[in-house]
Amino acid sequence: MNQTYSHGVAFILEGDTEARFYETMICHYSGNHTECAYSGWFDNSINDFIYKVDSIQSSVLIRMYNVKTITQIAHSADWFKNECKKRFKDIKWTIFLCYDTDSHARDVTKFYEGDWKRLREKLEGKDIEIIDLAARAMIEDIFLLDPEGICEYLGIQAKSIPRTGSAKKTLKDFFRSHGKTYHEGDRAQDLIWALNKNKIIEKSEIRFSLIEQCCFLEPVGSMT
Asked: Where are the domains of the chain?
């Protein structure tokens, strides 16, 4: 807790599946940067995990907040204020808002209204940058960008995965057709690790590269 950090990165996430995915994404990028040391530990004083990336030039603090239910999204501003800004003073912050749009037909407009607007207003401030990482339409749509990885996880020959509805329903049906069950949250971790992150990064419209840029390459404020 007494360490001095050059800047901080906060992830505000919708649920456990998203949290596991973004944790593995940071790990993926850490493998591309042997000049950096990525580590994490459970801090009993705050009853939460803390992650950091150390390099010769900087020490980046990484915090994650799992909202669990989208109706509680506005309360994440209090978490950031109390658990990030107050505890780790005088550093710049980048906040990644990680959410899904629920439908391919929706853009991110609604996430600037209502509770989301109030959240952004509470988060805004000096030395704070807010970046949207919006999945269209849900996190499982991101998984489906790597059907080969899903098939390899299931231990079957690579094949296309037919859509049977939403991405979540598609995965549930595909797993069931091969005698398996698709699990969300922590139980999805093994599947998430099996996915080819480079393929997902290449195919996805989400700006995952900003995670690498912010955590491993450049300080807050230098991103465009």
From this structure: 7-136+205-217, 144-191
